[in-house]
Structures are given as structure tokens and as C-alpha cells.
Write a structure and sequence with these properties.
The complex is a heterodimer. By secondary structure, chain A is α/β, with parallel strands linked by helices. Helices cover about 35% and strands about 20% of the residues of chain A. Chain A folds into 2 domains: about 220 residues, Metallo-dependent phosphatases (Purple Acid Phosphatase, chain A, domain 2, 4-Layer Sandwich), CATH 3.60.21; about 45 residues. Classes of the chains: A alpha/beta, B alpha+beta.
Chain lengths: ~300, ~50
């Protein structure tokens, strides 16, 4: 990621939450508190080095409470975002509700939402001192605010995949949802009402890469894989049509299919497109020497006290 | 005086042509953007087998 960040222009690096801690267990064992706190700082330092642009908040990021999260956010070179997470006492948002980043001349509005449904109830310690506003309502407000100032609106969602679909169906104006919580790979991202929905699996096994190509100013995208598939179909149809073995009656059907495929390809011409890749982060991947040093030092100090994480 | 205006006129014309050429060239190359995204890292600091 760091290499790519340095070698290419026009990159945004984002995370949609549940970054800092493993799955919440209530109460967090006393002997783990220092270790998980230091690990959270290590992760923020690593993200600073990688050059993250913004992160959203997941419910597990509140494992050590809102004060800890606010404190650690000061160490980050990037903003923590949450549009519907409020401090109960002051009524203010805990973090910035949105940012606008300029990338290759495009103004990208980014906001973030967290679901209240992932907390275990009103006495969940992660929720202490917090108020979470309904996400759909807040999403509508954020779009209204960002739309006049931006070319593209991006949601860092910690609502879960099903709710992401609901947001796409009910909140026009968002263009891309980077989802979280569910932890599923979406190599062929669904596009609902022109909103592209993304997500990868949990525990840092994969990272997603979405490349956008703008041929016009309308922020509507189709998957470049669709075009490749259509072109392959067309090539197969042509083979059938050119083959002496294909009966004439069948050729008439293939001609119709050819016309239809060519028509669709013509319709796609000049439209904006995206290409999505889910990249595995395996052992073989080159490690950053600084991060490796920090991780080794952390492991030497703390790993004996840690309990293996429970799969989600 | 007339010569001075002529030179200025030619320079202005050349400059505007240059701007037109460069802007039409810029319109031809489509804009691109890359998003790298992660979610649910869950405090992992070591590579997790995929």
C-alpha cells in the first residue's frame, strides 16, 4: 500500500472501522488492557506511515471507551470520521462528520456511519456517554450538505452489508459505499441504483482496490468486467457465425445475439467505469521495515498475555 | 506604435492558441482515481493466512 501510495497519483486510502481491537468481549480481561492499548497506538502509527486519508468508526473501536478513542485520534495524521456518533453530554459529534479531499481535480466528499444495532444493549460499555443518530436520516443530511461542494460522495459505512443495500436503495446522491462489519469479500461489487458497494473480509486478510475511470462528469459507473465479458461473448458469437459447421438456422439466432451484444457495447462507450480487485495480504508481501520493527517489539513485550482472537 | 500593437496582437493570439491546445489535450485524457480500502482489521498486526 505504501509503495502504491508513493508511486501513483490520485489515490485515496480509507478504512471503514473495527480497526484497532479484536472482537469485543465484555469485560475486556484486565491483563490485556495495556497490551491492546499499545497495539492500538502501533496500528495508528502504521496507518500514518502507509498514508491513510481517513477512517470510519466501528463499534469495536470503542472497546476502551470514547475518551481513549478521542485521545488516540490525536496521534493520527488522518481524520477519524463519524457523522452519527455524538457525545451525549455536549451534543457534539465525537469526530469530524465529513471531509472533502481533492484527488486529480475531483472533489471527493467522505462521511461515515455506525450502526447502533451492533452494541449489546443500553449498558454496553462501548456506548457509554454516546448517542448514535439513525443512519439513514443522517446519510440524507450529509448528502444534502456535500452534494453542492463535491463531484463524488463516498460513505465509509459500519452498518453491515444488508443495511448498505438499504442505504443504496433509499439515499440517492451517494456514489460509493465502503462497507464494514459483515466481513465479506465482494470481488464483483453490487451496483444498486448506481451506488457501488464494496467490502472485504475481516482481520486484514485482504485489501480492496477500486480503480475509477472518468470519461464524463456524470458519477455513474459500470464494472469494466461487464465490458470484458461482453467482448468475449462477441468473439465467441463471431466464431460460431464464421464456422461452416454452424447450421444456417442457428446462425440467424447468433446474428440477433451479435446485434444485441454490439448494441450494449455501444451503450457503454463513453460511460465511466470501475475495476475492483480484492488483494490477499499474504506472508510473501514485502513488509515495511519500520512497521516490522514495531510489531516485533510489541510481540516481544505483550504477545504472551494475549488470547487468540475469536473468528467473526 | 503600430508595430508594437501588431507584435502584442500576435503574442496574444499565440498565447490563446497555446491555452486552447493544452486544454483540449487535457480534455482528451480521462481522469482516474484509485481507492484502496480496508475494513474489520480487528487489531491484526501480522499477516493472516487467506
Amino acid at each position: 500500500m505504501k509503495d502504491l501510495r508513493e508511486s501513483e497519483k490520485g489515490i485515496l486510502v480509507l478504512d471503514s472501522g473495527d480497526l484497532l481491537f479484536k472482537r469485543f468481549s465484555n469485560p475486556t480481561p484486565e491483563n490485556e488492557l495495556k497490551g491492546i492499548s499499545e497495539k492500538a497506538y502501533l496500528i495508528i502509527e502504521s496507518l500514518n506511515l502507509i498514508g491513510y486519508d481517513a477512517i470510519g468508526i466501528g463499534e469495536d473501536d470503542l472497546t476502551l471507551g470514547k475518551d481513549f478513542l478521542m485521545e488516540i485520534s490525536k496521534k493520527a495524521n488522518f481524520p477519524f470520521l463519524s457523522s452519527n456518533l455524538f457525545d451525549e453530554a455536549s451534543g457534539n459529534t465525537l469526530f469530524r462528520s465529513s471531509i472533502i479531499k481533492e484527488v486529480n481535480g475531483l472533489r471527493i466528499g467522505i462521511f461515515s456511519l455506525l450502526s447502533s444495532e451492533f452494541f449489546t444493549g443500553p449498558f454496553d460499555p462501548r456506548k457509554k456517554g454516546l448517542m448514535i443518530r439513525p443512519p439513514i436520516e443522517v446519510a440524507q443530511e450529509m448528502v444534502k450538505e456535500l452534494k453542492p461542494k463535491t463531484d463524488l460522495i463516498l460513505l465509509l459505512s459500519h452498518l453491515g452489508y444488508v443495511k448498505d443495500i438499504e442505504v443504496a436503495q433509499t439515499v440517492p446522491g451517494i456514489h460509493i459505499i465502503i462497507g464494514g462489519h459483515t466481513g465479506i469479500n465482494l470481488p464483483y461489487p453490487p451496483v444498486i441504483k448506481n451506488i457501488v458497494i464494496l467490502q472485504t473480509t475481516s482481520r486484514g486478510m485482504f485489501i480492496g482496490r477500486l480503480d475509477l475511470l472518468f470519461n464524463n462528469n456524470e458519477p455513474i459507473f459500470y464494472n469494466s468486467a461487464t465490458k470484458i465479458s461482453l467482448e468475449n461473448n462477441l468473439s465467441q458469437i463471431n466464431q460460431r457465425l464464421n464456422s461452416k459447421e454452424t447450421p444456417e438456422a442457428e446462425k440467424a439466432q447468433w446474428r440477433k445475439s451479435k446485434e444485441e451484444t454490439e448494441r450494449t457495447l455501444t451503450q457503454l462507450r463513453g460511460k465511466n467505469q470501475f475495476t475492483n480487485h480484492i488483494i490477499p495480504l499474504q506472508d510473501q508481501m514485502k513488509e515495511d521495515p519500520n512497521i516490522k520493527t514495531w510489531v516485533d517489539a510489541y510481540k516481544a513485550k505483550f504477545q504472551k498475555t494475549e488470547i487468540p482472537p475469536v473468528p467473526k | 506604435m503600430k508595430q508594437k500593437w501588431l507584435v502584442l496582437g500576435v503574442l496574444a493570439l499565440g498565447f490563446s492558441l497555446l491555452i486552447n491546445i493544452s486544454s483540449s489535450h487535457a480534455q482528451k485524457s480521462p481522469k482516474t482515481m484509485t481507492l484502496l480500502y480496508s475494513n474489520n482489521i480487528n487489531g491484526e498486526i501480522e499477516p493472516c493466512p487467506t
